[in-house]
Design a protein that fits this description.
By secondary structure, the protein is an all-alpha fold. Helices cover 64% and strands 0% of the residues. The chain is built from six helices and no strands. This is CdiI immunity protein domain-containing protein.
Length: 96
């Protein structure tokens, strides 16, 4: 919430765009080679779940946090983390 007050970006939209535009690229060999078949299956299930709800998500961060659809997406994302044993993984990004 703090980030939304300090940026001109629409954080609700960014949460959607990050997954669909930036993170999930199942047709790219570099993406596929980074995960096992089981991991790819779980990610595909999450992507389908998220995609089924994306058009019903609120346009503001405040409304997004209140919506049942977003809570479902967050719960499914947590399911992914638990299922794949990634709950305690800390993402580290290479400097560009």
């Amino acid at each position: 919430m703090k980030y939304q007050t300090t940026t001109t970006a629409n954080v609700a939209w960014e949460l959607v765009n990050q997954w669909f535009d930036d993170f999930y690229h199942p047709s790219a060999e570099s993406f596929r080679s980074s995960f096992s078949t089981d991991e790819l299956d779980v990610l595909e299930e999450f992507d389908s779940f998220y995609d089924e709800r994306v058009n019903t998500l609120a346009d503001t961060l405040i409304e997004l946090h209140k919506s049942n659809e977003w809570k479902e997406v967050v719960n499914k994302a947590n399911w992914v983390l638990v299922t794949l044993g990634w709950k305690e993984v800390i993402a580290k990004y290479e400097d560009s």
